[in-house]
Amino acid sequence: QVQLVESGGELVQPGGSLRLSCAASGFTSNYYSIAWYRQAPGKEREGLLCINSKDKSDDPTYYTNSVKGRFALSRDDAKSTVYLQMNDLNPNDTAVYFCAAKEGRACYLARHYGMDFWGKGTQVTVSA
Questions:
Q1: What is the C-alpha to C-alpha distance for residues 63 and 53, in angstroms, rounded to an integer?
Q2: Rounded to whole angstroms, what are the CA distances from 38 to 32, 72, 113, 114?
Q3: Taking a C-beta distance cutoff of 8 angstroms, is the pair 38, 45 a contact?
Q4: Ramachandran bin of 32, using left for φ above 0, alpha for ψ from -120 to 50, beta for the remaining angles
Q5: How many angstroms separate the CA atoms of 22 and 120, rounded?
Q6: Do 112 and 88 contact (CB within 8 A), yes or no?
Q7: Which sign, positive or negative, has the C-alpha torsion 51, 93, 116, 118?
Q8: Which of 70, 73, 71 minimizes the C-alpha distance to 52?
Q9: Could you tell me if 124 and 97 are in contact, meaning their C-beta atoms sit under 8 angstroms apart?
Q10: HEC profile for 98-125?
Q11: Chain CA centroid to CA 40, Å
Q12: pLDDT score for 103
């Protein structure tokens, strides 16, 4: 069973930066996608960006244009961890951030068919 554990959420001031971590384990395939989603109070869950295990670089597939230029992904394969670097944060970025995964699909198909595994989320609050 795939397990995903997010960490790193906290209170940050507008304009600040934050790095979230997603520690993954239990994959039965070496072909999988890991994505970040978020859900703000009273809003639907929003897909942000994704990376696939077969990607040769850390350039993500963006699920929304709202975070392009501000959010980026990186990974440490030795630690089986994917990082979400968030810069120039604003109050609209306040949400619970989730890590999600799907085996056997590229990022755009993983989103289309739906992620199979989810972490419990980590709270990010952007406020002065």
A1: 17
A2: 20, 14, 18, 15
A3: yes
A4: beta
A5: 11
A6: no
A7: positive
A8: 73
A9: yes
A10: EEEEEECCCHHHHHHHCCCEECCCEEEE
A11: 14
A12: 95
Among residues 21, 8, 18, 123, the alpha carbon closest in space to that of 79 is found at: 21
Alpha carbons within 13 angstroms on the beta-carbon side of residue 104 total 6
Instruction: Give the whole-angstrom CA distance, residue 44 versus residue 26.
Output: 28
Q: What is the pLDDT along the chain (128 residues), one digit of tens a residue?
A: 999 999 999 999 999 999 999 999 999 999 999 999 999 999 999 999 999 999 888 889 999 999 999 999 999 988 899 999 999 999 999 999 999 999 999 999 999 999 999 999 999 999 99
Residue count (the chain): 128
Give me the pLDDT at residue 75, please: 92
Give the angle subtended at the CA of 116 by the CAs of 114 and 117, to the nearest 5°.
130
Q: Is 24 helix (H, G, I), strand (E, B) or coil?
A: strand
Place of tokens 């979230």: 20
Q: Note whether 124 and 20 are within 8 A (CB).
A: yes
pLDDT for the residue numbered 25: 95
